[in-house]
Amino acid sequence: MRRDARGNARVTPDQFLITVLLLVLLVLFAVDRFRAETVAIGGLAAAAVLGLVPVSGVFAGLTAPAVVTVIEVLLIVQVLGPTRLFERLGQSLQSRFHRPLPLILALSALGACLSTVMNNVAAFSLMLPAAFSLMARDRIPARWIFLPLSYATLLGGLWTLIGTPPNLMASTLLQQATGQGYAFLDFAPAGIAATIAGFAAMALWLPFSLFSRRGDQRAVAEGGTEAEAGPGRGEQEGGPEDVAPVYRRVMCELAPGPSAEGETAASLEARLRGRLRNVVREGRRLFPLRPDTPVLPGDRLLAEAEPAALDFCLSAGLVVYARAGDDRRLQRAGAVVMPHSVAVGSCVATLHPQIAAGVAILRVEGEPTRFEGPFEELPLRVGNLLLLEGAGPALKAFIGYYDLIEVATVPSPPVSPPGSGGLLPLLVFGFGVTVSALGLLPAEIALGGVVALFCLAGWLDLRLALRNLNWSIIMLLVAMLPLGTALGTTGAAAAIAHALTGAHVIDSGPMAVFALLACAMLITPFVNNTTTLAILAPIALEVARATGLSPQMLLMAVTIGSSLDFLTPFGHHNNMLAFSLGSYRFVDFPRFGWPVSLCSGVAAGIALLLFW
User: Fold this and answer.
1) Strand pairing of 359-366 and 2-3?
2) Could you report the per-residue pLDDT of 89-148, keeping only the tens digit for each?
3) Residue 347's CB: how many other CB atoms inside 10 A?
4) CA–CA dist 170, 166 (Å, integer)
5) Which residues of 136-167 are buried (b: 16+ CB within 10 A; e: fewer)?
6) Phi-psi category of 256—alpha, beta or left, where left has phi over 0 and alpha has psi -120 to 50?
7) Can you state the angle between helices 65-80 and 443-456, rounded to 10 degrees?
8) Any stretches that span the bilayer, and where are they (predicted)?
């Protein structure tokens, strides 16, 4: 920051350019029209062309400890996932808790604990089989489960250095500024305080937000579920507007028999509680499709149906899956489309022919979208729940290639190396985490040793694992680290910090902590948490230098605030997945999230002031 002849601060061209560039990136992230990593890499390229990032520093993020550690954690998760340990832990919770609210909170607590030692998305993904098992066995609605689980994994990531990428990124920035980064458990006091307060808010607010229908509240009070209250009761008493509809899109056929006589489009829609999008008879589509159009056995029907109604029609033999095979040896599995899956945007007809050979997608479940068919051209979206049919090995290969998350186990021969399904990999991982927590080795070295042992033991196929990595998270970190550094080296962060301290906006410890925390919490619902930290971290460090406050405290305030993302479905991948899987409305996020944000933010700020 330069000063003119009168001593007034003057913004330099570089400061102006980096500020405008970051604001443009914020807008592009918020509108969500382009992939986040594409926007970040484009911003880094623009910064390099404008001279804001030196050529020698463009690829500095590739060797940053934060990036290396994230890669190692994602590799480790690929070994721990097939063990089904966390699904078994979820099932053990079902035997201990018999009321929906304690069961949901216990499952969320397990997800929070898991998130302390791995990426948030990885922890949420590993808990999905347990969540679907809970839904199937206890008949608990999806909308009761996924939002608390998403919030819990975000809160659990605050505890440790490796719990979430922003924590690692903050440690790297702190080391660049002061010569020493955060220790493994430096985040624990504030993270645990935020988690306890957040869980308390969820426990108190859950019955009044997600359990908003009167039928739901009575079911919780009686220890039952919506399904036990009788079919249709929730809709009649609470109104259909209280919950976003869930539809299963399926290609089915009317089964031959007496029940098929006199069936019309309108009567079948009433049975399915949905819509018939098209009817194909002898290779030709019937158009126009009128309510009185007769439906005959053998017609291929593209239908959107409510899950319970479709299940009833299938079990009663009224309809059958048109794409199902006749071989009774074929198995079925449910799988969720993840944000980093290569299947996103693809349709059934364009899937890899060699990988998809022998695997049929029977139905696609998700939030309603207008689609007239045919079924083979239905695009797959993040959060879609697929019902697959095929031979066991073919199903496993399909799910692995497209990086889906299996949520319904199928009996099939093991495809993992011998021993990879036991507790030994988890013990090795726990040993690496302990070594890092005790400060004996940096996190990237300790976890690197774990990855090396996994490879030597044959538990990890490194070539396949690297192909299946969530590269979007990695490239986002690689690109945003130099941009965050540029905000400091150009003097833009110092200029912003000088303006804030000069105006006495943040001239004391409590004001600085809560102002930076609130600023991060307001930005992160609209952009990803890594970008929020990259923009605010240099400002926090400059505020610390100008006021003499602890840089560890102020940088941690920004870091924690960037992860308290509870107000929108698109600020974090976990919220996006929960939004699709639970079929929430947008308003459900601020309605359920504001008490969690308020309580966890206040608790984290108080803990920072007490411990730092």
Assistant:
1) unpaired
2) 766 776 777 788 888 899 899 899 988 888 787 788 778 777 877 776 666 777 788 899
3) 15
4) 6
5) eebebbbbbbbbbbbbbbbbbbbbbbbbbbbb
6) beta
7) 40
8) 12-31, 37-55, 62-81, 101-132, 144-162, 182-208, 445-462, 474-500, 512-541, 553-572, 592-611
CA–CA gap between residue 372 and residue 152 (Å, rounded): 38
The one-letter amino acid code at 435 reads V
Question: How far is the C-alpha of 21 from the C-alpha of 17, rounded, in Å?
Answer: 6
Amino acid identity of residue 216, one-letter, is D
Structure token digits, residue 67: 């990036």
The amino acid that residue 328 corresponds to is: R
- Specify the amino acid at residue 34: F
Residue 253, C-beta contacts closer than 8 angstroms, at least 6 positions apart: 297, 298, 299, 300, 301, 319, 320, 321, 322
Residue with tokens 């996020």: 589
Q: What CA–CA distances, in Å, run from 217 to 104, 138, 448, 533, 612?
A: 15, 16, 48, 39, 42
* Residue of 604 and 468 predicted with greater confidence: 604
Whole-model pTM: value is 0.68
Q: Could you tell me the sign of the dihedral formed by the alpha carbons of 231, 233, 239, 241, in that order?
A: negative
Distance between CA 222 and CA 218 in Å, rounded?
6
| CATH of 247-406 among 2.40.50.140, 2.60.40.10, 3.30.565.10, 3.30.70.1450 | 3.30.70.1450
**Residues 138/35, Cβ–Cβ less than 8 Å:** no
Contact of 377 with 349, CB cutoff 8 Å: yes
DSSP 384: P
Per-residue model confidence (pLDDT) at position 553: 94
Q: Chain-wide mean pLDDT for the chain?
A: 78
Residue written as token pair 């803990």: 607
Burial status of residue 459 (CB atoms within 10 A of its CB: 0-12, 13-18, 19 or more): buried
Q: What are the Cα distances from residue 484, in Å, to 27, 42, 49, 80?
A: 17, 14, 16, 33
- What residue has token string 């833009």? 492
Distance from C-alpha of 225 to C-alpha of 218, rounded to nearest angstrom? 9
50: its two tokens: 């404008």
Give me the residue spans of the domains in the chain.
247-406
Number of neighbours of residue 7 by Cβ within 10 angstroms: 6
Q: How many residues does the chain have?
A: 612
Residue 176 amino acid letter: Q
DSSP string over 62-120: GG-HHHHHHHHHHHHHHHHGGG-HHHHHHHHHHHH--SHHHHHHHHHHHHHHHHTTS-H
Rounded Cα distance, 147 and 569, in Å: 10
| SS3 (DSSP) at 142 | helix
| SS3 readout for 469-504 | CCHHHHHHHHHHHHHHHHHHHCCHHHHHHHHHHHCC
